[in-house]
Amino acid sequence: PPEIRSGPYFVLGRASSRQSEYDQAAAAFLWLATVYSENEPLTAQSTVEAARSLQRLGRTPRARSLLEEVTKEFGWSAAAAEARSLLEQSPSPVSR
Predict the structure, then answer these.
(1) pLDDT for position 90
(2) 96 pLDDT tier (thresholds 50, 70, 90)
């Protein structure tokens, strides 16, 4: 049923990530975050996981954008604390 589809999408994302299929992992995590976003804690964690996958693909600016989004939209969540930590660990983009 639609109300529980977010869980399986999260599992698909994790499985893809463990198999180093980061493009598929990011897609599953982002699908969950955009289509099945009713579960806010899972949506926040899914967005962080999507950012991790994108970082592994070398898409650092997009990953940073997602992490910043989590800190703004879900600042109350454990995923936001994780996102802040990841943002502090990665170098900031060069300003132009």
Answers:
(1) 76
(2) very low
CA 34 – CA 7 distance, rounded (Å): 14
57, amino acid identity: L
Q: What tokens does 2 get?
A: 């639609």
Q: Which two tokens stand for residue 70?
A: 């989590």
- CB contact at 8 A, 77 and 44: yes
DSSP state of 15: H
User: What digits encode the pLDDT tens for the residues 42-86?
Assistant: 999 999 999 999 999 999 999 999 999 999 999 999 999 999 999
Residue 9 makes CB contacts below 8 A (sequence gap 6+) with 28, 29, 31, 32, 36, 46
Q: Residue 57: how many CA atoms within 13 Å on its side-chain side?
A: 20
Quote the CA–CA distance of 86 and 73 in Å, as a whole number: 16
* Tokens representing residue 18 in the block: 């463990």
Token code pair at residue 20: 């180093």
- Higher local confidence (pLDDT), 19 or 2: 19
